[in-house]
Amino acid sequence: MSQPLTIAKFGGTSLANHAAMQKCARIVLNNKATRIVVVSASAGVTNHLVSLAHTAMTQQQTGEVCEAIEAIEMAIVAQLQNPAAVQDKLDDLLTEMRALAQHEEILQREDLKDQLLSMGERMSSLLFSAVITELGNPAMNFDVRKVLRTDSEFGAATPEPEAIASLSTALLAPELEDAIVVTQGFVGADEQGKTTTLGRGGSDFTAALLAEALSAQVCEIWTDVAGVYTTDPRIAPNAHPLPELSFEEAAEMATFGAKVLHPATMEPALRNNVKVFVGSSQAPEQGGTWIMRDCEEEPPYRAITRRKEQVMVTVKTPKMMYAQGFLQQVFAIIAKHRLSVDLVTTSEIAVSFTLDNPANSVAQRLNKETIADLETLCDVNVEHGFDLVTVVGNHMQSATGVSSKIFAAVADYNLRMICFGANPHNMSFLVNEKDSTSIVQHLHKALFE
Ligand SMILES: Nc1ncnc2c1ncn2[C@@H]1O[C@H](COP(=O)(O)OP(=O)(O)O)[C@@H](O)[C@H]1O
Ligand SMILES: N[C@@H](CC(=O)OP(=O)(O)O)C(=O)O
C-alpha cells in the first residue's frame, strides 16, 4: 500500500506573520503523513490585490497599496534566520506584482487581474517553505499552475478534476519523495498556461482537489477557529465547535454562508472519500471538526448559517394564470445572463426568487439588460437589503415538529421567503438584513443552548 498522505491547508490569518507561520510549520512537521501544504495569501494581501485589480487609482495610490503588501511580506522575511535564501525570489515576485498593478489594461483585462490576484499565494508559499526549511525539514515551493488545470473563466475558474489527477500524478507526486511540497491555493492555469483563480476563499477547494487527485486520506483545513461551529462565533458568542459533520451538512453550511469552508470544497472530498478536518492553527490542541461520509449521529438541527447581501426578484403577470412554460422562460433568461437562482416561491400570478451575491457580482450582472429581457415577459421588481438564514440538519422534511420549533424562535420577525422540503438538510428563509443577527442569535438559543 502506498504511504499515507495528508494535505494541510492554511488560511490567510494563519499565515499573517512569521510567528503564526511557525505554529503552522510545527503542525505540518508533527504529522509525518503531511507531505503537501496548500497556502492562502497572508491576511490582508488578497484584499489589497483585489483593490489594485478593480479600482481606478492614481500612480501614487497604486504605489501605496503595493508598499502595504511589500511591508507584510518583508516583515516575515525579516524574521527568517536566512533572509537571503528567499530575498531574490521575493524581489522578482514584487517586481511582477508592481508591473501588473501599473499595467495600463489592468482594469479591462480579466487575465491580467487573475495574474495579479495570484501574487499573494505565490509570495506566501515561498516564505512558508522557507519557514519549514528553517525548522529542519526540506521543503520546496511548487508552482500549482503546473497541475491545477481549469477552464478560462478568469476570476471564477472551474477546475478540471481529470486533468488535475493526471498532471498531479505525473508532476507533483514525484516531488513528495524528497521534500514537503508547499503550493498555492486559489490559483490555477488554463490549457494555454494562463493564470486563473477559483474565486475568493478558493484555497480550501484547491486542497480538496489535490487530495482527490492524489487519493489522500485526509485534507486538513487550518484556520482561526477550532472547527466548524454551530454558527459563526462572531454572531453568537455561545456557538460551539461540532465534533463531526457529514459531507452533505458541510456542503449545505458552506453554500449557505459558513465562511469557514469554501462551498465547493466538499465535492472532491466526497468523490474520493477524503476525510476533512477543520481546526485552529494557533490552538491545534483544541481539536476540531471531522467531516466525513458517515457520522455517528444525525441530529435534526446541526447548525445555523447566514449569507448576506441577497437580492430578491419578483416577476408577476396575469398571463401566468393557467399558462404553461412561463417559469421556463424566466429561468432561461436568468441562465442566459449566467445568474444563479437560490430560493424560489411561486403563486398563481407571481414568482419570487433570490439570487446570491457572490463577491457582489450579482449586483453588477443583474443589469439593465437582464431586467429588460425579463420585462418582455412580465412586471419585474428587484429588492435588496436581505440576508438568508439557514438551519442545517438531518431528516428535516420528515421529522415532526422541526419547523414549528424554528418558527417559534423567530415568531417576532418578518420572514420574506421560506424554503423547506426540497432537501432533508436545510430550511432557509429570507429576512431583512437589520434583523438577521438577532434572528440567528434567537435561533441559536432555541436550538443549541
Ligand atoms: N459555522 C462556522 N464555524 C466556524 N467559523 C465560521 C462559521 N461561520 C462563519 N465562520 C467564520 O469563518 C472564519 C474563518 O474563515 P476565513 O476567515 O475564511 O478563514 P481562513 O482565512 O483561515 O480561510 C471564522 O473566523 C468565523 O468567523
Ligand atoms: N487568498 C484568497 C484565497 C483564500 O482561500 O483565502 P483564505 O483561505 O484566507 O480565505 C482569498 O483571500 O480569497
UniProtKB/TrEMBL annotation:
<keyword id="KW-0547">Nucleotide-binding</keyword>
<dbReference type="InterPro" id="IPR042199">
    <property type="entry name" value="AsparK_Bifunc_asparK/hSer_DH"/>
</dbReference>
<dbReference type="Pfam" id="PF22468">
    <property type="entry name" value="ACT_9"/>
</dbReference>
<dbReference type="InterPro" id="IPR001341">
    <property type="entry name" value="Asp_kinase"/>
</dbReference>
<dbReference type="InterPro" id="IPR001048">
    <property type="entry name" value="Asp/Glu/Uridylate_kinase"/>
</dbReference>
<dbReference type="GO" id="GO:0004072">
    <property type="term" value="F:aspartate kinase activity"/>
</dbReference>
<feature type="binding site">
    <location>
        <position position="229"/>
    </location>
    <ligand>
        <name>ATP</name>
    </ligand>
</feature>
<dbReference type="InterPro" id="IPR054352">
    <property type="entry name" value="ACT_Aspartokinase"/>
</dbReference>
<dbReference type="GO" id="GO:0009090">
    <property type="term" value="P:homoserine biosynthetic process"/>
</dbReference>
<dbReference type="GO" id="GO:0009088">
    <property type="term" value="P:threonine biosynthetic process"/>
</dbReference>
<feature type="binding site">
    <location>
        <position position="234"/>
    </location>
    <ligand>
        <name>ATP</name>
    </ligand>
</feature>
<dbReference type="GO" id="GO:0005524">
    <property type="term" value="F:ATP binding"/>
</dbReference>
<dbReference type="InterPro" id="IPR045865">
    <property type="entry name" value="ACT-like_dom_sf"/>
</dbReference>
<feature type="binding site">
    <location>
        <position position="46"/>
    </location>
    <ligand>
        <name>substrate</name>
    </ligand>
</feature>
<protein>
    <recommendedName>
        <fullName>Aspartokinase</fullName>
        <ecNumber>2.7.2.4</ecNumber>
    </recommendedName>
</protein>
<dbReference type="InterPro" id="IPR018042">
    <property type="entry name" value="Aspartate_kinase_CS"/>
</dbReference>
<feature type="domain" description="Aspartate/glutamate/uridylate kinase">
    <location>
        <begin position="5"/>
        <end position="279"/>
    </location>
</feature>
<dbReference type="InterPro" id="IPR036393">
    <property type="entry name" value="AceGlu_kinase-like_sf"/>
</dbReference>
<dbReference type="GO" id="GO:0005829">
    <property type="term" value="C:cytosol"/>
</dbReference>
<comment type="pathway">
    <text>Amino-acid biosynthesis; L-threonine biosynthesis; L-threonine from L-aspartate: step 1/5.</text>
</comment>
<dbReference type="GO" id="GO:0009089">
    <property type="term" value="P:lysine biosynthetic process via diaminopimelate"/>
</dbReference>
<comment type="pathway">
    <text>Amino-acid biosynthesis; L-lysine biosynthesis via DAP pathway; (S)-tetrahydrodipicolinate from L-aspartate: step 1/4.</text>
</comment>
<feature type="domain" description="Aspartokinase ACT">
    <location>
        <begin position="389"/>
        <end position="447"/>
    </location>
</feature>
<feature type="binding site">
    <location>
        <begin position="223"/>
        <end position="224"/>
    </location>
    <ligand>
        <name>ATP</name>
    </ligand>
</feature>
<comment type="similarity">
    <text>Belongs to the aspartokinase family.</text>
</comment>
<feature type="binding site">
    <location>
        <begin position="9"/>
        <end position="12"/>
    </location>
    <ligand>
        <name>ATP</name>
    </ligand>
</feature>
<dbReference type="InterPro" id="IPR005260">
    <property type="entry name" value="Asp_kin_monofn"/>
</dbReference>
<keyword id="KW-0808">Transferase</keyword>
<keyword id="KW-0028">Amino-acid biosynthesis</keyword>
<feature type="binding site">
    <location>
        <position position="121"/>
    </location>
    <ligand>
        <name>substrate</name>
    </ligand>
</feature>
<feature type="binding site">
    <location>
        <begin position="259"/>
        <end position="260"/>
    </location>
    <ligand>
        <name>ATP</name>
    </ligand>
</feature>
<keyword id="KW-0067">ATP-binding</keyword>
<keyword id="KW-0418">Kinase</keyword>
<dbReference type="Pfam" id="PF00696">
    <property type="entry name" value="AA_kinase"/>
</dbReference>
